[in-house]
Every structure is written in C-alpha cells, then in structure tokens.
C-alpha cells in the first residue's frame, strides 16, 4: 500500500512539474510581483501529443482527434447533443428551395451562408468570408490535404461577394449540402486566415506542409486559444473572450500528453487530472463504474465513434482458401458467431452488437431494421450452408474440401484489438479452422498489408454513413493500380450497390433517401462483404468537480465529449 501511495505521489509531482511558472518576467527589480489572478485550471490527459490541432491540416491525420480540434476551431455548423445541426459561425444553415439553397436545371446547385457579425480570429484579426475562400483554395489534395472526398470533391467554386457572405457552387446534387460537417474529424469547409498563411501558400507545397501554423503556432476561432506548448509534456489553452458562442466558463485548460494508460488512470484517481479523454482504456471505464457506483466521485463512459466489422476478402488473387469467395461461406461464418456473448465478452455488457452499417440511433433506422437479413447464432444453419457449398467436417471437426483438404482460414487485425481471439474461438467451435495474425503498429498502417489479407480482416471504421457507405463502392476498391488508396478494404464490387449508392448521393427527398438506404443495407446483408460486429468505444472519464460534461455523446456530435466544452465549469 505504501508503495502504491508513493507511486501516485510521484505521478502527482511529475504532473505538477508541468505547470507553467506564475512569475512575471516583466516585474521591475525591487518591486513586489503583483498577485496573480486566481484561475482554476482544468487538467485533462490525452493519449498522444497532437500532430496538429487545426481543423484541417496538410499532413496525415496522425495523433489528431476531434477532442482538441473542437477546442481550438470553429466551423460553419455544429451538432448538438441531440444530433441536430446548428449554425455556428453562420447565422443560419442553407434551406432547400430558398435563396440559400438553389438547384438548377443543369443538375448543379448553389448554397450560401451569411456569417455572424464581428467574428475574429484568436489574434484579433477579423474573420471574414474570404477566409473560407482561401481555405478552399489552399486545402487541396495536391497540397497534402485529405480533401479527395465529399463534400470537397463536389464543390466547383467558393466565392465571397462581401465580408459576410459565402457562396458555394456545386458541380452536382449533394443532398447533405446543408451541413458540411460530417462528424469525426471531417469539418467541411474550414476557414483559414489569409492574413497569416497567404505568404506561406505562395512559397509552395513544402512550405505549406512544414509550417508550424498547423500546430505550435495555430490561430483559430474556437472556444480556446493556444497559449503554451511544451513539446513532449503538455499544451495549455486560455478562454477566448470573443468566441462567437460566448466566452468559455473555464479560464484555462491544460492537456497533458500521457501515453501510458495506467499512468493516466492513476492521475485521475489521485485528482491530479480532472478529465481523461482518450488516455484510459475500456477496462478502466468498467473499474471506475464499479468503484464510483453510488458515489459522487465522477463519471466514466465511452464515445462510439466507429463500427468494427469482420471484412471478408473479395479479391481472388489474395483469397485463401478459395472457399472464402463463396457467399454461402460468408453466411455460414455469420451464423457461427454468438454476437451477444461475443459483445459481452469483449465489452462487459456495455455495448450491444450491430447488424448493419447504419447507426441504430438514426431516426430512419426502423426502415433499415425491417429490410435487412439477420444472422442469429445457429451452428446448424452454418453447417447446412457449408455442406451446400461442398464442404464437410473432417475427423478433426474442421471443414475440409474434397479436393483441397482441410480449410484453414486466416484472420488478421490491427494492434491491440480485442476481437480477434474471441471471434476465432467462435468460428473454431463451429468447425472453421482459423490462423490468427496480429499486425504490428507499422503493418497496421500499411495499406497494402491491410488490403491483401487472406480471409478476414477485423477493423473499425468511422460510423458516419458517408464513410460506411463508401467502403463498399467499387470506385473505392484498394488495389495496386491505385497505390492501395481507397476506402473499400474488402475489395467488394457490386453494380447493384453502386447504382443504389449513386442514386442516394443525388436524391434530395428524405423519404426516398431512406428507402435507398434500406436497399443498400439489404444488399449488403445478403452479400455479406463484411460481418458487422459492434460499435468501437473510446474511453473517457471525469471527476464530479467539473459540471456540464455529457455522460454520453450521440454519434453525430463533433468533439465527442468536448462538443460543448465552452459550457464546462467547475462545481
């Protein structure tokens, strides 16, 4: 016990050492330093030091989450805790069949925004419509930005008739044009300060990508502005007095970079940190829920930001065994998973299994649920399907081919994922022999390795429907010819699915869009290019000394639990 206390004390001392000095270097000699204003600092731990904190940056999205991008950035729109889109920098969002959203006979569109008055950047310079135009001009794939997807690819031009008016000209119909923010870390049309970046922009791609503006010298318009960044240790932000939604209630926030989850957990228990964002793991959430039950010490929970699926290989040149290409085998694998037990084993009963790529919390989900084919646990049905496909169990209890012998499937997953062992055990119990492979951190980000798996690849992907639906479009198939770029990990290609997707992408009527979603979901549930498993949780916890933090976060909100960070305050 004494050792544990000393360990926690050491951690507290370590964190306290990160605090900035309050001594003013400008105090004249011989005069007493003025008493510093009393400020309570909210201290939060994050798992990794950010690679950037800009809402959109010309470098890969490494070490970046919407936690701190929400803290420092402001956008045209924002979702609330009920998944309702609200205007943020804009006075109102475009509305179809009004002057703010016009559809033209040639199939093009125009949307417009009127900015709120007196917007300013963190450095005090006016934030004007031309900053959105500049952002559109600079944030191109050729400059290293990840903007080769909707809505960016559908924009023909962005203009600013005056300082408060933004006009977007669209190449084609885009049903989601009223809300450019699509969740996760996709913030739509992001303003960029021309007065700070124009010279850098004129110097070419290398200067843009190497600029410290995106991180240590960032100037945004969000609720907090960057004040200090101690590389390797922490960064600090101060409340932005001129934030468009009002000055945040907490004066200063310190984000500690704590890579070890147990250290972050110990700091939270010791009260050295007030909030643990993504720095603790799921097992810590379960432990805190048990320890804090019936007390007022704090709240632990998860944000569901992605869906985990077992993707099935569809490229014949990589498929092994060849049986994995048979849709009857796909369905047999689905029937062999006891999903509820699987979810309980991994997530302690906190997260429920899913059956489709569309979120069960979406208002249109009942239509999806009625349309899809479901696969309840049924090992007899799994065996029947395998027999129909020509495979029977051998003396060892595993399926075999009359010509190829025993079928040995391969399953791989990224580093640290808990699903593989449980899923492989389910399948072995049903007669499927599986060889497991854990990818290393380096392999996990290698697009070719991720795409050329032999049978099954377990991986989470962002749960917003734009990303989930793109995974199965034939134009997104990852291949050597495309440099392994794309969203389509399983290599699935279906002309029928492409037609549904393309129609959905240009359909404006909400009811028609729901029906097309249902058709897409039905087709995917029959073809099974993937077996949907569970949402993927991101852990967080906070002490009761901080108020107004949401215990749970609907999937469309931006920033996860920090979506309303300007409303947080000390109890």
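^ structure tokens above, recovered residues below v
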């Amino acid at each position: 016990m004494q050792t544990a206390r000393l360990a926690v004390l050491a951690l507290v001392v370590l964190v306290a050492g990160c605090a900035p000095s309050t001594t003013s270097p400008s105090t004249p000699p011989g005069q007493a330093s003025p008493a510093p204003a009393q400020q309570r600092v909210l201290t939060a731990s994050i798992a990794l030091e950010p690679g950037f904190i800009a809402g959109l940056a010309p470098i890969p999205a490494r070490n970046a989450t919407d936690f701190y991008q929400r803290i420092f950035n402001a956008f045209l729109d924002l979702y609330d805790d009920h998944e309702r889109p609200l205007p943020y920098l804009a006075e109102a969002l475009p509305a179809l069949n009004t002057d703010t959203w016009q559809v033209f006979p040639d199939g093009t569109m125009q949307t417009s925004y009127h900015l709120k008055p007196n917007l300013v950047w963190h450095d005090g310079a006016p934030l004007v419509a031309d900053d959105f135009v500049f952002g559109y001009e600079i944030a191109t794939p050729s400059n290293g930005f990840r903007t080769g997807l909707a809505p960016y690819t559908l924009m023909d031009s962005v203009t600013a008739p005056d300082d408060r008016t933004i006009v977007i000209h669209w190449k084609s119909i885009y049903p989601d044009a009223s809300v450019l923010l699509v969740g996760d870390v996709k913030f739509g049309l992001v303003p960029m300060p021309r007065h700070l970046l124009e010279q850098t922009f004129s110097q070419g791609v290398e200067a843009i990508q190497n600029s410290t503006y995106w991180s240590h010298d960032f100037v945004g318009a969000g609720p907090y502005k960057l004040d200090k960044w101690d590389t390797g240790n922490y960064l600090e932000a101060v409340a932005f007095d001129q934030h468009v939604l009002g000055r945040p209630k907490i004066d200063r926030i310190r984000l500690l970079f704590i890579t070890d989850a147990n250290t972050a957990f110990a700091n939270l228990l010791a009260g050295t940190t007030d909030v643990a964002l993504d720095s603790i793991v799921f097992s810590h959430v379960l432990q805190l829920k048990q320890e804090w039950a019936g007390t007022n010490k704090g709240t632990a929970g998860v944000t569901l930001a992605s869906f985990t699926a077992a993707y099935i290989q569809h490229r014949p040149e990589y498929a092994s065994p060849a049986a994995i290409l048979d849709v009857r085998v796909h369905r047999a694998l689905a029937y062999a998973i006891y999903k509820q037990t699987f979810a309980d084993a991994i997530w302690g009963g906190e997260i429920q299994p899913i059956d489709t790529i569309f979120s069960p919390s979406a208002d249109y989900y009942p239509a999806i649920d009625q349309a899809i084919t479901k696969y309840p646990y049924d090992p007899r049905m799994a065996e029947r399907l395998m027999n129909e496909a020509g495979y029977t169990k051998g003396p060892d209890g595993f399926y075999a081919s009359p010509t190829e012998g025993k079928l040995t499937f391969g399953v791989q997953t990224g580093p640290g994922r808990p699903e593989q062992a449980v899923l492989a055990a389910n399948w072995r119990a049903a007669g499927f022999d599986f060889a497991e492979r854990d990818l290393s951190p380096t392999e996990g980000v290698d697009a070719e390795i991720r795409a050329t798996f032999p049978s099954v690849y377990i991986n989470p992907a962002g749960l917003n429907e734009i990303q989930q639906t793109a995974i199965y479009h034939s134009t997104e198939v990852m291949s050597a010819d495309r440099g392994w770029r794309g969203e389509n990990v399983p290599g699935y290609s279906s002309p029928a699915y492409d037609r549904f997707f393309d129609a959905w992408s240009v359909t404006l009527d909400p009811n028609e869009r729901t029906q097309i979603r249902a058709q897409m979901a039905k087709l995917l549930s029959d073809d099974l290019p993937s077996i949907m498993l569970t949402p993927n949780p991101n852990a967080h916890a906070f002490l009761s000394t901080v108020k107004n933090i949401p215990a749970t976060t609907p999937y469309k909100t931006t920033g996860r639990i920090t979506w309303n960070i300007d409303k947080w305050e000390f109890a």
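The radius of gyration is 26 Å.
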